[in-house]
Write a structure and sequence with these properties.
The complex is a heterodimer of chains A (about 120) and B (about 325). Chain A has about 120 residues and is of the alpha/beta class. Chain A has one helix and eight strands. The interface of A and B includes residues 46, 77, 87 and 111 of A.
Chain lengths: ~120, ~325
């Protein structure tokens, strides 16, 4: 390699690394941008979470809406999330930043159970 | 209770009841939401007598004392099934006050409020101020646990109680035990008493002779009525085994907003109507929950329960009356 080429090669690496960091930085920004983040909706009707199992990508926000004439809650069995009490038409949202399977239930009517699969 | 023993019991009951209603027919009869149904535990054996509206109410005569059970007032609820639960609670209070005998006390078997809000408890207290009974005993329902795991409820109604609000008291020789089966509910489960409470019950019952009549009261039924809707208590057998030795046990519950009764040996179970709104019979609707009925029928599916205790006969007569009709 000529002297000139070695110099170019030497610069190329750090330049590439710098560009890589730049790209990673902007990818993060994109993920936080509401318009492109994944969302999922769960409706509570007749003492049932519908759908009972929901699969979403990491970073997705799940929103529960209570359609019953009776208040309900959405509480993770592992202490990950805990909604306030949702009366009729109230909502609760949670954003899942880690992959995994999250079982939850209604703490008022514990027979009501559901699952969020984050992958 | 299978086979021979059951047949013998049925025979004896047939003899006791001159009206020709045998035990099974009697239990079917109790599902009738008529003007009033009196059933008595006499020395551990149930005897039934139906009575019509306006008939001479001898239930109070000779009774050593009476008390009233109300349940599920859900103050704060305002949906179609009943837009004014405060008004129907007031009607229930008026009905209690119109009883021929003043009850010694009232027991509220839970779901006092709809959302555990201070304003809801305040309204309830206001209405209850007008009741003729001098004392009101409470146990919480799941709707009373919605803020800070029942902190509000305990502050207002949990004086001298333990844990999540359990306690006992004696009245004219009858031992009353208030239980809480709506705290720390586990996913997929029904009602739950928990070990700490069960251990307390064991200790609490220790001093009492087997001839002491026992009354247990808790929000969710202490027998399994319909698991799919959470109508039962996961560890109820644990408390029932502890009262097995007693000659007369009466269990009063709420939660299901309709009357259901069962007799198992010397234990009689009874659930009360709500003063707020009815719920469907098990499996007859997509879910439990407020059931809308035509406006003119509402007061017939809400009600109070009058309990008469006769010391000499060791008998408790339970009379359910709708708010109207």
């Amino acid at each position: 390699m000529t002297h000139k080429n070695i110099w170019a090669a030497g610069l190329a690496m750090p330049a590439m690394i710098a560009v890589l960091f730049l790209l990673m930085g902007s990818a993060k920004v994109t993920a936080n941008d509401q318009s492109s983040a994944a969302t999922a909706a769960i409706k509570i009707d007749n003492f049932t979470f519908g759908p009972q199992t929901v699969t979403v990508p990491v970073g997705a926000t799940v929103t529960w809406t209570n359609g019953d004439d009776i208040p309900h809650t959405a509480v993770s069995t592992d202490g990950v999330f805990k909604s306030k009490v949702m009366d009729t038409d109230d909502k609760f949202s949670y954003t899942f930043m880690k992959a995994g399977t999250y079982s939850y239930y209604c703490s008022v009517h514990p027979r009501m159970t559901g699952k969020i699969v984050v992958q | 209770m299978p086979g021979k023993k059951q047949d013998v019991i049925d025979e004896k009951l047939q003899a006791l009841n001159n009206d020709g209603v045998d035990r099974r027919g009697f239990l079917k009869c109790m599902a009738w939401a008529g003007t009033g149904l009196v059933w008595t535990m006499s020395g551990g054996v149930p005897v039934s007598r139906a009575f019509a509206k306006g008939a001479d109410r001898t239930a109070g005569k000779g009774a050593d004392f009476t008390f009233v059970q109300i349940s599920d007032s859900h103050i704060g609820f305002n949906k179609p099934a009943n837009p004014d639960v405060t008004a129907t609670l007031q009607t229930a209070i008026d009905k209690i006050n119109a009883l021929p005998h003043n009850p010694d006390f009232v027991i509220h078997t839970g779901d006092l409020s709809q959302l555990s809000k201070p304003s809801e408890f305040d309204t309830l207290d206001q209405v209850l101020k007008g009741v003729s009974a001098k004392q009101i005993y409470f146990v919480p329902g799941e709707h009373d646990m919605l803020s800070d795991n029942g902190e509000q409820f305990l502050q207002r109604y949990g004086k001298d109680t333990r844990g999540s609000g359990w306690y006992s008291f004696d009245h004219r020789g009858v031992h009353f035990v208030g239980l809480v089966n709506v705290a720390n509910l586990k996913a997929g489960g029904m009602g739950s008493l928990g070990r700490e409470q069960l251990e307390w019950v064991e200790k609490d019952l220790r001093g009492h002779s087997a001839s002491t009549p026992i009354v247990l009261f808790a929000h969710i039924p202490l027998w399994t009525i319909y698991p799919d809707w959470g109508w039962g208590t996961d560890d109820s057998e644990q408390v029932l085994s502890r009262v097995k030795r007693f000659g007369s046990v009466t269990v009063l519950n709420g939660h299901i907003h309709q009357i259901m009764q069962k007799i198992e040996g010397k234990v009689s179970f009874h659930t009360a109507m709500s003063t707020a709104f009815p719920q469907p019979a098990p499996g007859t609707a997509p879910s439990a929950g407020p059931m809308k009925v035509p406006a003119e029928q509402l007061q017939r599916v809400l009600g109070i329960t009058d309990v008469n205790y006769v010391v000499s006969g060791h008998s408790l007569a339970i009379v359910d009356s709708p708010l109207e009709g």
